[in-house]
Amino acid sequence: MIEVEATHITNEIDPQRRRLVCELYPGILVFHGSSGPSTVREAGKLVDPLPNPGGERTFPITERTAELAAEEYDRQMRRVEGALQQPRSLPPLVWDTVWPPKAWTDRNKK
Questions:
Q1: pLDDT for 49-92, tens place per residue?
Q2: In Å, what is the CA distance from 84 to each residue of 56, 70, 78, 97?
Q3: Which of 9, 28, 33, 44 could bridge across to 40 with cysteines, CB 3.0–4.6 Å?
Q4: What is the number of structural domains in the chain?
Q5: Domain around 101
Q6: Type and span of the H or E element at 58
Q7: What's the pTM?
Q8: Euclidean distance between CA atoms 85 and 24, whole angstroms
Q9: What does the DSSP 8-state code read for residue 16?
C-alpha cells in the first residue's frame, strides 16, 4: 500500500458520503476506496479542491492503482501528442491538444 495526500474531495450533498480524492498525476484522479484511476474528463465535475486547513488528508492506494494511474497519464499524453501531429485542414480542437484540460486547470487554480 502507498499513502497518498488528498487534493480534492467529492462534492456529495450528504457529508457522510464524501470521499477524499488525490490528483496523482495531472488530470488523473484516484478516489479513496476505489481500485483504479479516473480522468478529470470522466470525474472532474464530481470533486472540489480541498480547502487548505486541517483534517486527515492521506489515504492508502494499492501499488496496482498507482501503476494504472501512471499508465492512464501516459495514455492521455500520447493522445495529445497524436492530436498535435495529425495533418489537418483545420487546427486541432483545444481539448485535443492540452492535458489536463484547460477547464480543469482553470477551475483548480490556487
A1: 998 766 789 999 999 999 999 999 999 998 888 766 666 555 55
A2: 41, 21, 10, 6
A3: 44
A4: 1
A5: 2-107
A6: strand 58-61
A7: 0.82
A8: 27
A9: G
